[in-house]
Amino acid sequence: xxxxxxxxxxxxxxxxxxxxxxxxxxxxxxxxxxxxxxxxxxxxxxxxxxxxxxxxxxxxxxxxxxxxxxxxxxxxxxxxxxxxxxxxxxxxxxxxxxxxxxxxxxxxxxxxxxxxxxxxxxxxxxxxxxxxxxxxxxxxxxxxxxxxxxxxxxxxxxxxxxxxxxxxxxxxxxxxxxxxxxxxxxxxxxxxxxxxxxxxxxxxxxxxxxxxxxxxxxx
Length: 219
What we know:
By secondary structure, the protein is α+β, with helices and mostly antiparallel strands. It has one domain: Protein of unknown function (DUF541), domain 2 (Alpha-Beta Plaits). 31% of the residues lie in helices and 39% in strands. The protein has 5 helices and 8 strands. The protein has helices spanning 34-54, 99-107, 127-149, 178-184, 212-218, and strands at residues 5-16, 20-31, 59-73, 80-93, 112-120, 154-162, 175-176, 195-207. Strands 3-4-2-5-7 form a 5-stranded antiparallel beta sheet. Strands 1-8-6 form a 3-stranded antiparallel beta sheet. A hairpin with a 6-residue loop joins strand 3 and strand 4. Helix 2 crosses helix 4 (178-184). The protein is elongated and about 90 Å long. The relative contact order is 0.26. Residues 166-184 have low confidence and may be disordered.
């Protein structure tokens, strides 16, 4: 005779501080002369790189997200009147104490715009594993409660599976303009957003033969 089976779900969630902050910085240029646009873009991108270099290990990673240079027309089909371009860089930072100053320094550059930061846990963070373990423990507790209700105990685990696994809470976005940074001359006050990590599992276990039914029959 097959052993009785109990199927339950276990859930867990934790609020955790972010481990990384990601933001983008875009420098722009426009002029009637394409060569001037290219020269200005090159210089402004180099200035951004120099600022990032000054912050050393605070900057974990920098990546060029896009370079654009395009002609502009007064009307469609007419001759080119000017050129415009931009260079976008995505920056990942792990030391949040210096992040406000870094953002202000970048935003103060000529024709620079900042978007972010987006807060996140590091990819592969152990936070997710801890929450999954907690979800399994919750499922086992529920299974024991069901088994106990019919006078049984858990015999063996048949299956553990993820159910509708949820990623960390969406990251917060904020934007800063160059004019704001230039006026203040100081770093931004930033408040890292807590990250919500959730896990939900399905647990299937066999239980020993229920005794409640037996007691009910004799009564």
